[in-house]
UniProtKB/TrEMBL annotation, chains A, B:
It is found in: Cytoplasm. Keywords: Acyltransferase, Amino-acid biosynthesis, Arginine biosynthesis, Autocatalytic cleavage, Cytoplasm, Multifunctional enzyme, Transferase. The gene is argJ. Its EC number is 2.3.1.35, 2.3.1.1. The record marks A198, T199 as: Cleavage. This is Arginine biosynthesis bifunctional protein ArgJ. Belongs to the ArgJ family. GO terms for biological process: L-arginine biosynthetic process; ornithine biosynthetic process. NCBIfam families: ArgJ (TIGR00120), PRK05388.1 (NF003802). The active site is at T199.
Length: 408, 408
């Protein structure tokens, strides 16, 4: 029997202290959607004028809540907004019933909070293909609305977990025109219970004032180098959702501000890396740095080919500096590579160069390096100026236990 | 300690009885390239006029022997030909030394057998990045040449194994213009010892007379629906090689003959499926049939996305009819899909249709079906006439043991 509640060895020591974001209040409840004895619903209500940007899974079979969010992003930002999230049921592949559930939930939230339905965003994560028992959630909405508090972000991080082994939060602060702007975010991913699917949900809040177009531009751009650069097992969820909400309560206008974008990038990257650190069965956190590629896009293709290779990932699990498998992954990726220009390092150890093992390479030295929990694999293609960094974890018996052995 | 010599539960009961192919003779030897106490070199010599067609890995980091074979395929077919294969060392990512090894080996084979160097094809499979000790192979060439026999094809199948758990052979016979034409083939794949890589080597021989252009055309076309439709772990070798040799000794001209092409297809498909049945850690053989796709190419993209999904493969290992993961894989594949037109069956059991679970679906019935060793997952996209079938195996603790735990 798999013990999937054991906390990841790569987890941070504790949940970080997140700054209060003026303009957003949270509440959580135990609705019993699927799990018993724990919170499984989060409601966030955002003050009038909050802009909301988002990025979503590109899956062709994406869930009803994702489709609904996508339709609403970019609309008017005048009134208040709300986000309702449940864990335990993803409302994915539930046919027309799924759309009805979303419509019923958003109407109920609107009725109770006074937020217009076109500003109510919902997410669901958990089992797939089962009708969402939305009545259980609706039964909690009055209490949720009464309990809203600016302090409850950590509780919110817990309520959105499925089989995550730890709650994920990150924050940053930056000065803009003499005012302090705060950013706080929470994320879930990527635990699993058969027949669930790993999903990633991310909610980031800031008291900066950012116009929606500018916020969406930043979020879309930063997603490409943060959440779209992580992989646990190459399998893409039907529910992945990232929402970034700018309440404007700080009074500082951060539209197009470089320092704000940098701070937002830090929070997104931190949360993305925490998702990898909670990868199923993970015992190693691996950064793959690709440089010298023909283009940035090529570099990312190579990076993800390495990060998704079962042979590379099992070698890392076995603490084996198996650079041959890295060569293999580069070769199969489909992006440009020249065997004789390639160099590969594990940490500071130059392993391979000019189409062969480096004369300076010591396997004993590499074996010591591979025992570390956090590893860096650096690949230089020797072709151009393209670069990309991606993050992954190893592939262990724990992954098989969680995904094959769990259902008895 | 992983026991990687245990025979796959999916192995055939015994090596098949292969017909003798007039015009080709085999010999094997124990050269001690890496393994001790077993044969590791195979020499095949083919009579004058034999045409040779081949397909090879598309890896950008392919091995020196592969590059050499590719340069020679399609040349003149007048004189005799030879194939030299060693296991234990893949001569991949060995820089310029690798090319020197190939040149030295082909020259030595030429000197001893009288075959012109541009008709000597070599393959190497095994450890990557280590110089091939080609002198050990050359030391065996006189004996090999003296021992050549038309009967030794099964011995050849054994000599090319690395950590395969069984030797792979297949054959077919067909009447052409009143003459019996025979086809016999052998293959290896896909065992592994760190830091080895899985490689697939396939050699098929026929006494049909087929001009090289026609043979190459058949082989290239059939590869797309046989060897290019199997996957164990999505990782592509630097050494994959398929050579098909037509000696013409039967006197029957099979150039462009449909029955011959069909027979060749049977042999290729049989060998391809045997490679999957020896997939690392495999306990289930899975056929994935995709129909109703927008195009054949789209169908294959969907099929391989399902076949390569770690979540689908672990669910199969756990005997879990987890159709939600199949939906997920289709959604992420990038090829066209419409959630509401999709239907999915496991064997004869209709699991999902019209964007949701089928009303007739019984999970108990599916659970019984999933206990079978050979499984069929059928997906209909409901979009067009495109179809493709691919084959894979499950992902088990055995895979992790072989690839992570082996190196202590």
């Amino acid at each position: 029997m798999a013990n999937i509640t054991k906390i990841s060895p790569l987890a941070p020591a504790h949940f970080p202290q997140l700054p209060v974001i003026a303009g957003v209040r949270f509440a959580t409840a135990a609705a019993g959607v699927k799990y018993q004895g724990r919170t499984d619903v989060m409601l966030a209500v955002l003050d009038s004028g909050t802009t909301v940007a988002g990025t979503f899974t590109r899956s062709a079979t994406r869930s009803a809540p994702v489709l609904d969010c996508q339709a609403k992003i970019g609309g008017a930002s005048d009134g208040p907004a709300a986000i309702l999230v449940n864990s335990g049921n993803s409302n994915a592949f539930t046919g027309h019933y799924g759309q009805t559930s979303v419509a019923t939930l958003t109407q109920s939230v609107s009725d109770i909070t006074g937020v217009s339905t076109d500003r109510v965003f919902t997410s669901s994560t958990g089992v797939i293909g089962e009708p969402l028992p939305h009545d259980r959630i609706i039964a909690q909405l009055e209490d949720l609305n009464g309990a809203l508090s600016t302090e409850s972000v950590e509780a919110a991080a817990h309520a959105i977990m499925t089989t995550d082994t730890f709650a994920k939060g990150a924050s940053a602060q930056v000065e803009i025109n003499g005012k302090t702007v705060s950013i706080a975010g929470i994320a879930k991913g990527s635990g699993m219970i058969a027949p669930d699917m790993a999903t990633m949900l991310v909610y980031i809040f800031t008291d900066a004032k950012v116009d929606q177009t500018s916020l969406q531009q930043s979020v879309s751009g930063l997603t490409d180098t943060t959440f779209n650069c992580i992989t646990v097992d190459s399998d893409t969820s039907t529910s992945d959702t990232l929402l970034v909400c700018a309440t404007g309560a700080s009074g500082a206008d951060a539209s197009g501000n470089a320092a704000f974008t940098q701070a937002l990038n830090e929070v997104m990257l931190d949360l993305a890396q925490q998702v990898v650190r909670d990868g199923e069965g993970a015992t190693k956190f691996v950064e793959i740095r690709v440089t010298g590629a023909a283009s940035d896009a090529d570099a990312k293709v190579h990076g993800l080919a390495i990060a998704n290779s079962p042979l590379v990932k099992t070698a890392i699990a076995g603490e084996d500096a198996n650079w041959g498998r890295v060569v293999m992954a580069i070769g199969k990726s489909g992006a440009a590579a020249d065997r004789d220009l390639l160099s590969i390092s594990f940490g500071d150890i130059l392993v391979a160069e000019k189409g062969w093992v480096s004369p300076s390479y010591s396997e004993d030295e590499a074996a010591v390096y591979m025992k570390a929990q956090d590893l860096v694999i650096a690949v230089d293609l020797g072709l151009g100026a393209g670069s990309s960094t991606v993050w992954t974890c190893d592939l262990t018996h724990g992954y098989i236990e969680i995904n094959a052995d769990y259902r008895s």
